[in-house]
Design goal:
By secondary structure, the chain is α/β, with parallel strands linked by helices. It has one domain: Spore Coat Polysaccharide Biosynthesis Protein SpsA, Chain A (Alpha-Beta Complex). It contains nine helices and seven strands; from the N terminus they run E-H-E-H-E-H-E-H-E-H-H-E-H-H-E-H. Helix 1 (17-26) links the parallel strand 1 (2-10) and strand 2 (34-43). Helix 5 crosses helix 6, helix 6 runs parallel beside helix 9 and helix 8 packs parallel to helix 9. 43% of the residues are buried. The model has no long low-confidence stretch (mean pLDDT 93).
């Protein structure tokens, strides 16, 4: 039986951390012959995130003394993950853990080594995207949506990645692949760096449709415009270096 390591980077997520861990624990992976490991990396939270996570059974909790960024938290999580498959699960409930089997299944079945959950492949999600752009979370979602679409175009142009959602945070990998990439990210540039390095190796990125429920800046969304600029630079940089 293979093991799936679910890596959850978390910073000041006391409102959501218990709920996301509970949902992840409830996901049934037995039909895929997978056991599950939950690795929570508290990235120097100043609230009760670590305290709450530490009281939940079946969780491997690693703590950063100071806040170092999402990318740094993921890299720490990768070091402590022992599964042969690794999935990144954000702590903020934007991505539904019930779709975890859909994302990891192609890897289990040896159809892919890297799988991205795309928010632009499912017709129902496409309709929700239009609603979000017009009404819901407009201050956060419009910026994030346009930035994500732009980064996808750039990734396809620079790396011939042939994907629809470069900026998705729902990504799964064969552990041996992601651990061999020599990642250097510290903040939100994890996504473009991993996309660039996977594509440069000629590894095909498979996509599966997923749902998405965005939150606003007021609800705790942390990504900003500077992160989009940094993501663009990351894609450009790794096309020619490293």
């Amino acid at each position: 039986m293979e093991k799936l390591s679910v890596v959850i980077p978390a910073y000041n997520e006391e409102r959501y951390i218990e709920e996301i861990i509970t949902r992840v624990k409830k996901v049934n992976l037995k039909f895929l012959n997978l056991q599950k490991e939950i690795v929570v990396v508290d990235d120097g939270s100043t609230d009760k995130t670590a305290s709450i996570a530490s009281k939940i059974k079946g969780v491997k909790l690693i703590r950063h003394i100071k806040n170092s960024g999402k990318g740094a938290a993921i890299r720490t999580g990768l070091k402590h993950a022992t599964g042969s498959i690794i999935l990144i699960q954000d702590a903020d409930l934007e991505y539904n853990p019930n779709e975890m089997p859909k994302v990891v299944r192609p890897i289990v079945e040896r159809k892919a080594d890297v799988v991205y959950g795309s928010r632009y492949l499912d017709p129902n999600q496409k309709a929700r995207n239009k609603t979000y752009l017009k009404k819901v979370h407009k201050n956060a979602y419009q910026l994030f949506y346009m930035g994500g679409r732009g980064l996808t175009l750039i990734a396809n142009f620079l790396y011939n990645a042939k994907i629809t959602d470069e900026a998705t945070c729902y990504k799964a990998f064969r552990a041996k692949i992601i651990k061999s990439l020599n990642l250097r990210c510290t903040r939100f540039e994890f996504c473009p760096e991993v996309t660039a390095k996977v594509a440069k190796r000629g590894i095909k990125i498979m996509e599966v449709p997923i749902s998405y429920t965005p939150r606003s800046f007021e609800e705790g969304k942390k990504i900003k415009m500077r992160d989009g600029i940094e993501a663009f630079w990351t894609l450009l940089k790794y096309r020619f270096f490293d």
